[in-house]
Specification:
about 10% strand, alpha+beta, three-stranded antiparallel beta sheet, about 600 residues, Phosphorylase Kinase, domain 1, 24 helices, 16 strands
Length: about 600
């Protein structure tokens, strides 16, 4: 027995415990913080020499049964959870004066709230942090625990050499255990607990909450990480949580990230993602997409080449004639370097002048020659073409004489006059090229329903256009337009493997939950399943697999055909804990007998997913 008495943390203040030994095994080293409920100390186990966080409930509150019960509830919740992204509880008990204490894993770092004081986080870092938050939530939800007060203050960032941010979830003090947990209910229906800015609408109303309330809080945090502010911080927060849509995210945020954020912030829990595992998979897919984009954006060959639609310099592309809503521009970071090169002095005998001078002269010569040749061709064309019998602005006359490439290109950008000229052609005489220009032009002018019809005619007349990246990109956009979504998905269903890939992209990335649902339904059609690429079949097989044997059956195909879309699911199978009474058993032990899982992951990491 220890001879050191346990002081009472009351009249002498929280500092009175420093230097004492609690429960004959924890020596209190220093006070870390104090609040209305109690104090937190850094302490050391006197025998094991392990440093822990010691949380002590104020003695004055030990006479309040509900406060004591909630403190005990926190200990029970923390004791149920053992996960790398959750702070684990180590011990719980009472001191001689009746005060409750709880010892927990001591983590050093900074809260996500402190990190946000510096401003919004980068997209990749935000997604990486959220991925770990969701992983910890998945473990809590699997144990029947709903956090109910998830916010940046309760997310700790612990720096590691191998990982910039290791996330630890804190404070399950008002967590809700499932109804199977013994003990009295600590809250009644209609009671509201939590932090207003992060509370789900059903939580605001005092209704029964489940794991989807935590997912709403994840959406608020993701919004805050991207913008630096919560969506409903100003004004009547609770009313706005219930009634108002979140303000738009910045245009720089990728469409898939916007879709996930808005899905998490749905007012109706049934319209949100239904599990933390589902959110984790979507975050993995978004991160994989960032990796693919970075690889594609990396400069490769420092050469200058031109095509009718794209100019490429040092591996960076820029549209010569961009379409509305689809512009790409040279990276601003290249311009200063290019200008610096043009200012670099060069010598020619006794003369010395900037490099830009001969470059400008060479470009002027190219322009002069091009204009001269163009003029000669125009003169020749005017002499060989039958004279027009009506005003040149008459679209009907232009249609009768045939359309040049410039008119078709302008029509595809949505130019009203050029589009009218193409549409003036009799439908019986329109070629796939005409339908292509009409489809693209109508898409840009917002005539989505007729744009889908025109796309169908283009694909029907020329099967090679089913591989036209610009048309597939338009079809992907049209799939999210309310007036055209069903027709666009039905059209995609008949395009074979590329159409199946597009439908899957909509099912995982569409902003509207109903659109995602419609796309998922079409993935189940026999026609779509039969035409799916081997890579997509792997993704779908992994999504449908149940139990270790089910995943084992899918691995052979994954080794041969997996792409980045399957990576998140495959990596989940590497976890060797999560099953059994204490969640310490390997759920996927049947996969450990060979290296197929490793090879499948390597294949997925090396193979980019289709992009639209």
């Amino acid at each position: 027995m220890s001879t050191e008495a346990e002081p009472t943390p009351s009249s002498d203040g929280a500092d009175a415990l420093v230097g004492s030994v609690i429960a004959e095994r924890y020596r209190v080293l220093e006070l870390l913080g104090e609040g209305g409920m109690g104090a937190v100390y850094r302490a050391e186990h006197v025998l094991m020499k392990r440093v822990v966080a010691l949380k002590v409930l104020h003695r004055s509150l030990t006479v309040v049964p509900e406060v004591v019960a909630r403190f005990e509830r926190e200990a029970i919740v923390a004791g149920k959870l053992e996960h790398p992204n959750v702070v684990s509880a180590l011990d719980f008990g009472r001191m001689e004066d009746g005060s409750c204490y709880l010892t927990m894993e001591l983590v050093s770092g900074r809260s996500l709230a402190e990190e946000l004081q510096r401003g919004p986080l980068s997209l990749r870092r935000a997604l990486e942090i959220l991925r770990q938050v969701v992983s910890g939530l998945a473990a809590a939800h699997a144990a029947g625990v709903v956090h109910r007060d998830l916010k940046p203050d309760n997310v700790m960032l612990v720096g590691r050499d191998e990982e910039a941010d290791l996330v630890k979830l804190l404070d399950f003090g008002i967590a809700k255990l499932d109804s199977g947990t013994p003990g009295p209910a600590l809250t009644r229906l209609g009671a509201v607990f939590g932090t207003p800015e992060y509370m789900a609408p059903e939580q605001v109303q005092g209704a029964e909450v489940d794991a989807r309330a935590d997912l709403y809080a994840v959406g608020v945090i993701l919004y805050e990480l991207l913008t630096g502010a919560t969506p409903f911080a100003e004004g009547e927060t609770l009313r706005r949580q219930l009634l108002e849509p979140p303000p738009p995210l910045p245009e720089s945020v990728p469409r898939g990230v916007v879709a996930l954020t808005l899905a998490l912030l749905e007012k109706d829990p049934a319209q949100r993602p239904q599990s933390a595992e589902e959110v984790g998979l979507r975050l993995e897919e978004l991160l994989a997409g960032l990796d693919d984009a970075a690889a594609l954006a990396a400069p490769s060959v420092a050469a200058l080449s031109f095509s009718p639609t794209v100019a490429s310099f040092s591996g960076v592309e820029a549209d010569v004639a961009p379409s509305a809503g689809h512009e790409r521009a040279l990276r601003p970071s290249l311009l200063p370097r290019a200008l610096a090169q043009l200012k670099r002095p060069v010598s020619l005998g006794p003369l010395r002048f900037p490099l830009g001078v001969p470059v400008a002269l060479a470009l002027a010569l190219v322009v002069f020659v091009s204009l001269s040749v163009t003029g000669l061709l125009v003169m020749w064309g005017q002499r060989t073409r039958a004279p027009l019998t009506a005003a040149s602005g008459d679209a009907t006359v232009v249609a009768q004489q045939g359309l040049d490439e410039a008119t078709l290109a302008s029509a595809a950008t949505g130019d009203a006059k050029a589009l009218a000229a193409v549409e003036a052609l009799d439908e019986a005489t329109r070629s796939a090229v005409h339908w292509r220009a009409i489809a693209r032009g109508r898409t840009r002018r917002g005539d989505s329903a007729s744009a889908v019809q025109a796309l169908g005619r283009a694909f029907e007349q020329d099967g090679t256009m089913k591989a036209d990246e610009a048309l597939l990109s338009d079809l992907r956009l049209l799939a999210e337009e309310r007036a055209a979504s069903i027709a666009a998905l039905d059209l995609a269903a008949g395009l074979g493997a590329v159409g199946a890939d597009l439908i899957y992209d909509v099912s995982t990335g569409a902003t509207d939950p109903e659109t995602r649902k419609r796309a998922a339904e079409r993935l189940e059609l026999a026609q779509v399943r039969a035409s799916s690429s081997p890579a997509l079949q792997v993704v779908l097989a992994l999504k449908r697999a149940r139990g270790c044997a089910g995943f084992a059956d899918a691995l052979d195909a994954a080794v041969e055909h997996a792409d980045a879309r399957a990576l998140a699911r495959l990596k989940q199978l590497t976890a060797t804990r999560g099953c059994g009474t204490f969640k310490r058993s390997d759920c996927w032990s049947c996969l450990r007998g060979d290296d197929r899982l490793k090879r499948a992951i390597e294949r997925a990491e090396a193979t980019a997913a289709p992009k639209f």
